[in-house]
């Protein structure tokens, strides 16, 4: 029996394009059904993100005209990513496969054919080839979106301060964002490098080399989030594979490969936009939780919708010794170059800095780190017992400040999810 596909499409004020693109989406879905690549029970799920025009009315009419159209409506505008997440959460128990695509039809809809057509033989090499193509398209779409934004930013959010202190904008009479500056660098940050590298490493180690599990069985457990019989044993086996941050492991090698591919693709897309230089980096910022909620179970043993890894750091918990040197070496090896960063997030116990000898060791570590190519270091110096007590009752520690990612915050001001991320990192590394 063919897999059931749900195509998730976020919509906001789409009354102009929706009557046109809906026909394109339906045609593609019917084509996949007719060639027996997906089930006839597959659906196109529109998510109305609080539109102020007739978008929801059009979605309702489409659903009346064809059973393959369905829709949900959010009470207010919550943003593109939240709309996608709402659609994925709605679809996750009703289908086998989800694909998200924008309503404007700019994404390559024919990519669905290849996604649904391959029946084997499976291999990490095949997955890598497909992954690179997917990544290239993501980079291209991101660059298009940034360029579109900058084209109109001069009208609603001109860079007033940068225009004043930079050479070029005043002389040319142009905003920084549209040709005023000779050089205009734009960071394009990737996320989840450890999640992806660990997944490729687990596939290579457990499926191909050790043959502990076959591709079809693994796919089943990923689809069911390891909840079926034997799923937890499979998950633990995968999570105990050689991990990124362990010291020249299979996954470390995959991380280098991923970073090099991503960096090259980001730099290549700059050629399409004269005046702009897109700079690759590995930085999830504060989106570790939000991005994770859009990703199902992964072959590294991560449960569906759990957080991705923080920045360029490994997933915590796979080594009990902290493995400071191994972790640092791994992060230094995936630096993308070109001026952007893959930060090292370091958690230290206050006791490590007591005495002149301890201070010198920390100083030597920091110097060595940057000599190896590191570009940014975020340090937390927090007592593990104190952070546990603060997590139980944040109100007792109103002045406790922690380094979350590229910013610091009062611990008591963080959400429970963010507090857990910080707690886990500190307890494992501290």
Present the secondary structure layout.
Blueprint: E1 5-11, H1 18-34, E2 43-48, H2 55-65, E3 69-73, H3 80-91, E4 97-100, H4 111-117, H5 124-156, H6 160-165, H7 169-172, E5 185-190, H8 193-209, H9 215-223, H10 231-239, H11 250-269, E6 277-282, H12 288-292, H13 324-333, E7 344-348, H14 356-371, E8 377-381, H15 384-392, E9 401-403, E10 408-410, H16 416-429
Parallel strand pairs: 1-2, 1-4, 2-3, 5-6, 7-8
Antiparallel strand pairs: 9-10
Short descriptors:
3 domains, Spore Coat Polysaccharide Biosynthesis Protein SpsA, Chain A, alpha/beta, four-stranded parallel β-sheet, 430 residues, 10 strands
From the spread of the alpha carbons, the general shape counts as globular
Structural class: alpha/beta
State the end-to-end distance. 50 Å
Strand order of the largest sheet: 3-2-1-4
Q: Tell me roughly what share of residues is in helical segments.
A: 40-55%
């Amino acid at each position: 029996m063919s897999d059931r596909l749900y195509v998730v499409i976020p919509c906001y004020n789409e009354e102009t394009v929706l009557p046109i693109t809906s026909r394109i989406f339906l045609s593609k879905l019917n084509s996949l059904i007719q060639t027996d690549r997906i089930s006839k029970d597959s659906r196109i799920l529109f998510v109305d993100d609080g539109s102020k025009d007739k978008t929801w009315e059009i979605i309702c009419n489409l659903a009346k005209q064809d059973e393959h159209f369905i829709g949900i409506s959010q009470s207010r505008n919550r943003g593109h990513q939240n709309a996608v997440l709402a659609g994925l959460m709605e679809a996750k128990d009703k289908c086998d496969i989800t694909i998200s695509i924008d309503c404007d039809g700019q994404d390559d809809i024919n990519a669905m054919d290849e996604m649904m057509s391959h029946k084997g033989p499976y291999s990490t090499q095949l997955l890598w080839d497909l992954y690179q193509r997917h990544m290239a398209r993501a980079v291209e779409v991101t660059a298009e979106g940034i360029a579109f934004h900058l084209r109109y930013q001069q009208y609603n959010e001109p860079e007033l301060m940068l225009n004043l202190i930079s050479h070029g904008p005043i002389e040319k009479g142009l905003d920084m964002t549209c040709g005023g500056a000779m050089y205009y660098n734009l960071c394009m940050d990737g996320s989840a490098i450890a999640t992806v590298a660990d997944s490729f490493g687990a596939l290579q180690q457990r499926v191909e080399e050790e043959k502990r599990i076959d591709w079809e069985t693994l796919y089943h457990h990923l689809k069911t989030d390891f909840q079926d019989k034997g799923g937890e044993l499979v998950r633990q086996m995968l999570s105990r594979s050689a991990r990124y941050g362990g010291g020249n492991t299979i996954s470390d090698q995959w991380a280098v490969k991923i970073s090099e591919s991503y960096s090259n693709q980001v730099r290549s897309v700059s050629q399409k936009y004269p005046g702009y230089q897109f700079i690759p980096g590995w930085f999830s910022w504060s989106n570790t939780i939000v991005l994770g909620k859009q990703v199902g179970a992964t072959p590294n043993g991560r449960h569906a919708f759990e957080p991705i890894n923080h920045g360029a750091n490994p997933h915590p918990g796979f080594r009990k010794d902290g493995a400071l040197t191994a972790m640092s070496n791994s992060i230094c090896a995936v630096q993308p170059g070109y001026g952007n960063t893959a930060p090292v997030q370091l958690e230290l116990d206050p006791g490590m800095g007591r005495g002149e000898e301890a201070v010198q060791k920390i100083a030597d570590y920091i110097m060595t780190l940057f000599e190896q190519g590191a570009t940014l270091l975020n340090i937390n110096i927090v007592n593990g017992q104190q952070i546990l007590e603060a997590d139980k009752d944040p109100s007792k520690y109103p002045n406790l400040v922690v380094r979350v990612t590229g910013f610091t915050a009062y611990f008591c001001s963080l959400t429970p999810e963010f507090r857990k991320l910080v707690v886990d990192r500190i307890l494992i590394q501290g």
